[in-house]
From TrEMBL:
PROSITE patterns from the UniProt entry: HTH_TETR_2
The keyword Zinc-finger is annotated on this UniProt entry: no
The keyword DNA-binding is assigned to this record: yes
Keywords, sorted A to Z: DNA-binding, Transcription, Transcription regulation
Protein known as: TetR/AcrR family transcriptional regulator
Species: Streptomyces hyaluromycini
Length: 209
C-alpha cells in the first residue's frame, strides 16, 4: 500500500502495517459512526495505534477519509478480455462491486458531500481518487488502439480531453446508478451501458479530422 501523505517528513520510517490498520479502522468508523461523529482519536483506538502515530501520517480527518476510500479504488484492475467492450464490462463490474461495499458508499458519499464547501478536500479527492483511476482509461485506450479498435490521437490535448470524457461518463453513470438511483449495476445494465458508450466513441472517431 503506497502512502499518499506529503513527502519530506523526517523521523522514524513509516509502518505499512500501521497504515493499513488505520485506513481499515477509518472505513469501519465511517460505516458505524458516519462522517460527523468520526474522530481521529476513535480511529487510533480502533487501529491499536497511538494518536501521535496517526497525526504524523495525516493532517486531519479530511485527508484520512479520502485516503481510506482511495485505497479501495486502487483495487481496480483493467482485465484483458480480448476486446474493448469486454474489457470495459469487466472493469465497470469491478467498480460497481466496490461501490456496493458499505465502507465505499459511506466514505465516498460523505467525502463528496463535505467537498461542496471545502475546496482543499475537493482537490484531495481529485488527486487521490479521480486522477489516479484515470490510469484505467489510459490503459484501456492504449490497448484498444493496439488492437485497431480505436484510432490513435496524435494531439496530446485532444487525447487528454478524450480520457477525461470517458472517465466522467463511466464514473458518473456507475455512481449515479448505484448510489443515487439505488439500482444494481448488474451484467445486463453494464452490457447496455458499454454498448451506448462505444457508440459514442465510434461517432467521435468518425468526426475526428
Amino acid at each position: 500500500m503506497q502512502s499518499r501523505t506529503p513527502a519530506g517528513r523526517t523521523g522514524r520510517p513509516r509502518s505499512a502495517a500501521a497504515d493499513a490498520a488505520i485506513l481499515e479502522a477509518t472505513r469501519q468508523a465511517l460505516v458505524e459512526l458516519g462522517w460527523s461523529k468520526l474522530t481521529l482519536g476513535d480511529v487510533a483506538t480502533r487501529a491499536g495505534v497511538a494518536k501521535t502515530t496517526l497525526y504524523r501520517r495525516w493532517a486531519g480527518k479530511n485527508e484520512l477519509v479520502v485516503d481510506a476510500v482511495a485505497e479501495l479504488f486502487d483495487e481496480l484492475e483493467l482485465p484483458d478480455r480480448g476486446s474493448l467492450a469486454n474489457d470495459i464490462e469487466g472493469v465497470v463490474l469491478q467498480f460497481a462491486a466496490i461501490l456496493d461495499r458499505p465502507e465505499a458508499r459511506s466514505g465516498l458519499m460523505a467525502a463528496v458531500a463535505e467537498s461542496t464547501r471545502d475546496d482543499a478536500l475537493r482537490e484531495r479527492i481529485r488527486a487521490s481518487i479521480v486522477d489516479r483511476q484515470k490510469r484505467l482509461v489510459l490503459e484501456g485506450r492504449a490497448r484498444a488502439q493496439c488492437r485497431g479498435e480505436l484510432p490513435s490521437e496524435p494531439d496530446p490535448e485532444e487525447a487528454a480531453r478524450t480520457v477525461d470524457l470517458i472517465f466522467d461518463m463511466v464514473a458518473g453513470a456507475v455512481v449515479h446508478r448505484t448510489l443515487m438511483s439505488g439500482k444494481p449495476a448488474d451484467e445486463e445494465w453494464v452490457r447496455d451501458f458499454t454498448r451506448v458508450l462505444l457508440l459514442g466513441l465510434a461517432a467521435q472517431s468518425t468526426e475526428t479530422p
